[in-house]
Design brief:
The chain is an alpha/beta fold and 250 residues long. 40% of the residues lie in helices and 17% in strands. Helix 6 runs parallel beside helix 11.
């Protein structure tokens, strides 16, 4: 349940505009709702400030749609990540309010205004065009979490002048997410240019010896630039969420 919605309900009870029984009915599914194949966590927004997110991988289209519909029922904005292309049309038919974010491979229901809860801007930097799906997943997550998001694309270390030409954007950001595959060097370069927190995302983009992103992951974990935080391979959602938590106003 959205904290604002819960507060409004309690205020209605206090003012006598809603009965205790009515409030109990509204709160009956507050902890979670059991769908049989999933227990949808309606309490997560109250605990963490962000509603439960649906991971599309491994789920059927019908399961994704059912979970999204249940989350949508409470009035929350809903995010489903890594939705297989083959499932998109079915989910959109079942959840008419949803839209497909094709590059980010996500489906979103945005039914509430997104309040700006960030201290500043989150900048999402991607090394190459092939890294864009992971970068867009990070950007979408951070925006839905209530942050202003900027993007800087195709500025990998093979043409470092492209990155250096954007120093103003780097300095203007409060938190930076850096997405890179291949050898994964870009986060170290960015972190060496700024005092801003850097969240690094290794991607599975690269040739054979990249080992599906393991080379980039190890390169980022062994960064010579102090303070680089590293999430899992291709985990744009985790990076966007981490950046949102770092950027959140006290």
């Amino acid at each position: 349940m959205d904290p604002a919605k819960l507060k409004a309900l309690l205020e209605r009870v206090q003012a006598g505009d809603a009965s205790v029984d009515e409030a109990l009915r509204d709160l009956a599914d507050l902890p979670f709702r059991d769908l049989g194949f999933a227990r949808v966590d309606h309490h997560r927004h109250l605990r963490t400030g962000f509603p439960e997110v649906v991971l599309g991988l491994g789920k059927s289209a019908e399961q994704i749609a059912a979970i999204m519909s249940e989350l949508q029922r409470t009035g929350a904005n809903v995010l489903a990540t890594r939705v297989p292309d083959a499932h998109v049309a079915t989910v959109l038919r079942a959840v008419p309010a949803a839209r497909h974010e094709a590059v980010a491979r996500a489906i979103v229901v945005e039914q509430q205004p997104i309040a700006d809860v960030g201290r500043g801007t989150i900048l999402v930097i991607s090394a190459g065009t092939s890294d864009l799906p992971v970068a867009e997943e990070a950007a979408l997550t951070a925006r839905l979490a209530g942050n202003r998001v900027e993007r800087l694309v195709d500025v990998g270390v093979a043409g470092i002048h492209r990155l250096l030409g954007s120093r103003a954007a780097i300095e203007a950001a409060s938190v930076i997410v850096v997405v890179a595959g291949m050898e994964g060097a870009l986060p170290s370069v960015v972190a060496g240019l700024t005092s801003r927190p850097v969240v690094a995302v290794p991607t599975s983009i690269g040739y054979g010896a990249s080992f599906g992103g393991i080379a980039a992951l190890l390169g980022m974990l062994n960064s010579c630039a102090a303070g680089v935080t590293v999430v899992n391979i291709d985990n744009g959602f985790g990076a966007g969420y981490a950046a949102a938590v770092i950027n959140r106003k006290p």
